[in-house]
Amino acid sequence: MRTTFITFILLATALINTSAQDQTTAADYERQIVASYTNKNMPVLDSLLKSYYNTGLYPIDVLMYNYNELQGMEDWSVIVMSSAESLIGKLILQRVLNEHRDKVLVCIETGGLDATICGKLGIAEPLTSGRPEEVFEKTIKWVAEHSDRKVYFPFTDSPLFKQFPDAMKACIYNEGLTMRYSTTPYDNIAVKIRNLEERYLTDYLKLSLQPYNEKRDCRLYRRFTPGMLALNYSAIYIDMLPYYQKHRPDRVEWLQNLYGACQAHYNVLSVGSFLNNEP
């Protein structure tokens, strides 16, 4: 089964490569990767990404989380991110591991909808200005209005959602680890269930997620540590548990044993339902 195969290949590779570290720190790699990506120096970028991955310094749990974000999206779609923290893992997946290369990555921190990205999407460059959250909001809408691709943003960027205009909030649908912008209503619960049961790689959730380690995890971008990202699986669990109890009681135990494990492990007291629009 492809998902299981990818999971264990990535895990095994990470365990092997941890012994191959040189004197370059994770923060050094990330600083250089962001600079190379921003300057569109792709040969240098690819070399840095490959070296960074081969050191094993990039946390495998975070890489798998990034994989699941892309895995839940539709083919040939776009993901808009506010920070390079959400970008680096996806660049490793696309440019080193050759996974989900059809998805277009748009990162506000590294230039947003610059000429290269707009050329890839076949759209004109927007004139964006204002506060960061306004640029984030306008970028999502610009791509949705000027291309035929579906547009997403990470659940980790959901705090910015609170600052969107009400009219735009009505067009945001939670699909699990990503949020989708759509002016056409659709059954996002069905998509969320598909992601939970069919698309997300979950073997690594059954293992012991690595806690934050100051000595090993000295990344430049480390706001989203493995443990913090695991809480987003807990949010899905708490969000979807009432639905499963009502509509799919035969799958409640499965949901609790897998996604609920994150809830129990990290002792999340309460996570409110977030845009769970039951049809």
Task: Note the topology.
Layout lengths: L1 H16 L8 H13 L3 H14 L4 H12 L6 E4 L6 H8 L8 E4 L7 H7 L10 H15 L4 E4 L3 H4 L4 H4 L2 E3 L3 E4 L6 H12 L26 H22 L4 H15 L13
Tell me what you see in this structure:
Helix 3 crosses helix 5, helix 4 (60-71) packs across helix 5 (88-95) and helix 11 (226-247) packs antiparallel against helix 12 (252-266). It contains twelve helices and five strands. The radius of gyration is 19 Å and the shape is globular. The chain has helices spanning 2-17, 26-38, 42-55, 60-71, 88-95, 115-121, 132-146, 158-161, 166-169, 188-199, 226-247, 252-266, and strands at residues 78-81, 104-107, 151-154, 172-174, 178-181. The chain has a five-stranded mixed β-sheet, with helices on both faces. The protein has 279 residues and is an alpha/beta fold. Helices cover 51% and strands 7% of the residues.
From the helix content, strand content and strand pairing, which structural class follows? alpha/beta
* Major beta sheet, strand line-up: 2-1-3-5-4
Pattern of helices and strands: HHHHEHEHHEHHEEHHH
N-end to C-end Cα span: 32 Å
Continuous helix count: 12
